[in-house]
Here is the input.
Amino acid sequence: MGHGVFPLPSTFSFPSSHTDCIEALRVCSADPRCEALYRGLELCAADAAVSPLGEQVAAECLERRDALLGKHPALSSCKCQRGLRKEEQCLHIYWSVRLMPAEEELETSPYDDTSMETHMASLVAASSLMQLNGENQCLKAAQDCGLYEKCGSLRSEYVLACTKKVPGTNRCNQQKCHRTLRRFLERVPEEYSLPVLFCPCTSTLCGERRRKNIVPSCSYQQMEGSRHNCLQQQSICRQDGLCRSRLADFLNNCHPSPLKASGCLKDSVALCLRAYAGLIGTVMTPNYISNSSSEVSLSCNCEGSGNQWQDCLRIQKMFTLNNCLRNSISLTRSPDSPPVDITLPPAPRPSQLAQEDELLSNNLVPEHSSIVEEGSEEEEERTQTEEESDKGAHFGVIPLYSERATISSLESSGAGSAAPPITAPPVPIFLLLLSASLNCG
Here is the structure.
């Protein structure tokens, strides 16, 4: 049974405030009977992930699930937070109690975005105030990122991972590339990451930089040289708890509706943009299709779909013919927005990474020969430090861009003199516009 190109998502509605799944399981574990039911269901989910359950085993597992949720209903309505250190642990619990999920459950977001919607809406409103004055906004977004230590260092990290070749081959480590891209998008405040992804362009030079921001030669294109079938790509995604969750979030928050002014069933372009960004760094990574268009697509095709041709086209059209997604991206590049009555301070002196970004304005990805790999121990130590510091981070506090954040992967020449130190934290234009929009609201 079909509902057009985009079938309607689940009608099951969660309360406005959700229990975290890890907390829900902690409460359940205090009861030995509840704990035993969950562990048994967890084994059922693990077996189902390997091969379809037999009829009798499936019936026993579903009976166990019903008993668990009847005893502890909070597990059926719990949600997870995107980007937290225990996100995958939380998602494991979420999907374990949804044994053999129906299609509508695979299109219901496992994430609790109630606390993020207002924040994201403010960001989108601020970005729409950016004027297309001929300046390369994608270069400007990259420079602003370079002026903020965490953004600059994590951006350098994913560029390094996505351009480095696996020893003895001519290909990159796509898994590591995806992991570092997700780390960039999860740990860098949206005030910096969104302008990098959705910078407005009026020239093909800007459009090429925007398209190459995620290093598509590694993160987007198939490593084997041939393109996957979209049904196969979706199947691979749904075998992984994180990718399945990000795809469900996208299907839920970017579901189109002709009855809404925004084109989105949930009437929130902000949540759609965040859900789209959440797919980057997974098997379902989308990207811009050309240097002269803001249209996006997956890297897969529908060759060999047989009698599942329409199902395959539906997956493609979630990106290519989705008015909700198209409108969401378009709102970040509105050329007709009224000017902001705000006096901007003198432009700050750029950091070393910002200067190097300007040299990269021809959008050429650095070659492997110019990359010096950082030690894995240092990377893990930095990861742990960032996880601990994330809890108290505020986007308004912009630490100076330090020497530690500069790596040779973005240098266009050999050893050069470092840029003069910045004496005060510069405030990107995007943040000033954000502040203006919040004050007006």
